[in-house]
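Final report, Chapter 2: Outcomes

The project's central promise was a pipeline that accepts a single protein chain and returns its three-dimensional structure in a standardized token representation, suitable for archiving and comparison. That pipeline is now operational. To close this chapter, we reproduce one record exactly as it appears in the project archive, with the input sequence first and the structure output second.
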Amino acid sequence: MSGTLIIAHPVRSAALRVGPVRIAIVGKGGAGKSVISGTAARLLARRGGKVLALDSDPMPGLAISLGLGPLTEPFLEGAAEQSDDGRWRLRKGIGAARAVQRFAKVGPDGVRLLQFGKATPEGLGPIMGSLNAFFQVTHRLATTGVLREWNVVGDLPAGPRQAAFDWAPYADTFLVVVEPTWKSILSARRIARIATSRAGTVALFVANKVHGSSDVKLIEDRLGTAAFGAVPADPAVIEADRRGAAVIDETPACPAVTAIARLVDQLMRA
């Protein structure tokens, strides 16, 4: 029912899901969304199928976690034009499939990244064309035949704003990343309720940066539901961030990557 928070519990079925994985990853600022998004996208690609990573966060993050390094340029600048009334639109002949083909960056494991660019000293003004093109492309993904079988992983910025304003229409599942702190837990609950206000979507809570089962229990008790999965606090993630590298490349067998791999396996069985 629209407006109802729908929480899915850990999946135990061995049957693979029908159709691609289409998720948007949300949460409080600093919760670890980009690391989980980038690592999950890489792992999905390694399991077969095509993967499109969507970065709608105006701050840096997903490109680094994918192993592409810091990318700031507006990818879709050439895909947009302004009409006489000042409104932005996709150029004639450019739909979602062509936008992905022409403007996405191909990263490690064949993951394609599409982003609208990063905030400049002048704010979002210089990338408004790319931003508007990105929004329109995401809204055409579900109806574009050649992209229907692609796995899609979206990294949304902190807070509920983009979820509330339909920046992730491609997602049937929101992964809500939550740390074992009151601020993060309260934010996660509110973001999940807003994200699932669109009919047909579910929210799965992912406990992140936990130091053991007691942290997971604290999160679950305060949320009032089971966590879909848990990712441990891992120094390897911090070290990779210091280097500006993807943790899956720097330390592929570390506890965080191993835990995210379990999440991906569960998503493929959801």
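Archive annotation: The chain has ten helices and ten strands.
This record, like all others produced under the grant, will remain available to the consortium after the project formally closes.
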